[in-house]
Amino acid sequence: MTSENFNEDLASRQEIFKIIYDRYYGSIFWQAHRLLDDREKARDVAHDVFMNLWFKGGSLEIENVLWYLTRACKNTCLNIINRKKTERTVVDRVQASEPVREDPHFSEDFQIREYINEALMDLPERWRLAFHLVFTHNKSYAESAAEMNISRNTFKSIMKSTLQRIREKLIHLK
């Protein structure tokens, strides 16, 4: 394929995408808004649905674009709703639990955290950021990868190396 053909294909793909976006964005936004009852999240969902279409569109065989977009929107919204329910369940459990009593293992846990922090300080900055996004900010690998502007697979590789290095540093605690 020559660069001229590639540019023609890209221009054609962009035109088709623009038509689909202009025709269906409003419907997808309102479907997300109806399910989430939050304009900002609905905008994010609609944006994500169309971004996924753009990036995956060349590899997908879509017979009915509207069906595909509404299904993707619904699934994305359901994932958000389920994540909210899980977060609420965890918060409810924590709030319903008994007050914290003196824990004999507290100092041991504190010491382990100190060892982990020391191990983290020996890691490259990107590795520390990846660790903190997942374990401190409770972000998924996909969310963390997007925040770091890297692919999900690259992020997975960084996390694998990070956890392996931390394990090596903490092996003496057994």
UniProtKB/TrEMBL annotation:
Kindly state which keywords UniProt assigns to this record, in alphabetical order: Sigma factor, Transcription, Transcription regulation
Output the superkingdom of the source species. Bacteria
User: MF terms per GO, please?
Assistant: sigma factor activity
Which CDD domains does UniProt cross-reference here? Sigma70_r4 (cd06171)
Record's family? Answer: Belongs to the sigma-70 factor family. ECF subfamily.
The record's NCBIfam families line, in alphabetical order, gives: sigma70-ECF
- How is this protein named in the record? RNA polymerase sigma-70 factor (ECF subfamily)
Q: Which organism is it from?
A: Chitinophaga japonensis (Flexibacter japonensis)
